[in-house]
Amino acid sequence: PTTAYAKAGAAVRDPETGERLALFDPAARAQGVFIDPAVALTAPASLARSASLNAFAMAVESSLANTADPLADGLLAHALALLAGWLPRLPAAPDDPEVRMYLMLAALVSGQGTDYVGGGLAQALAHAVGPRSGVANGVIEAILLPHAIRFAGIEEPERLTKVARAIDPRTDPVDSADDLAAFVARTLAGLGVPARLRDVGVDRGVLADAAAHAMDDWALGQAPRPPTETEVVRLLEDAW
Q1: Is the pLDDT score of 23 beyond 90?
Q2: Cα atoms found within 13 Å of the Cα of residue 63, Cβ hemisphere only
Q3: What does pTM read for this prediction?
Q4: Which stretches within 31-173 are classed as H helix?
């Protein structure tokens, strides 16, 4: 269940440098996507989980991006609702094709929505930390997501509440970025996501290099609050 279904390009990892090289070409965008239950079950459940966490984190961050877009809002809210409903079912039913197919649909919708408004800080950092640690991109991004929300510091209660209620319609109004970050952190903890980078085996020694690399990542383009490299290092240290 990867958001890459909807994207115009691909990414490869250089094993010698650890760099993630993003390749963009509109001609590479898929003209159609077929979601097949037999194919969906060929991925290990751990891969389906980490890819779904990536789709979740991207949908949250892109919902808070600088660019306001009603089409993106609708797509991202639907993606979050699907992921919140189906991702918790994966551990108990790893071979249920219905679960896999809805996660794949959610990832597709998240990828389409993020295409309208771009990415964010957690995504850029995961692009840099993941290849340097060998830890799945989605897991890294999920751990960094609450930190990125706090850093963004958006103080628009209506906008923040809309994101939270896409995940859980019963959520009380959200008044601050800190409140949304705490809500997202609780949601991710309920999905079994560790709280710290060290808990998944990220070496502290890669953080400074990852921060430098992240500054050139295209995903930072729509971040609500563009960071300095020093701020990125501090955020990574806090998450570690």
Answers
A1: no
A2: 32
A3: 0.93
A4: 37-40, 45-63, 70-86, 97-117, 121-133, 137-152, 157-167
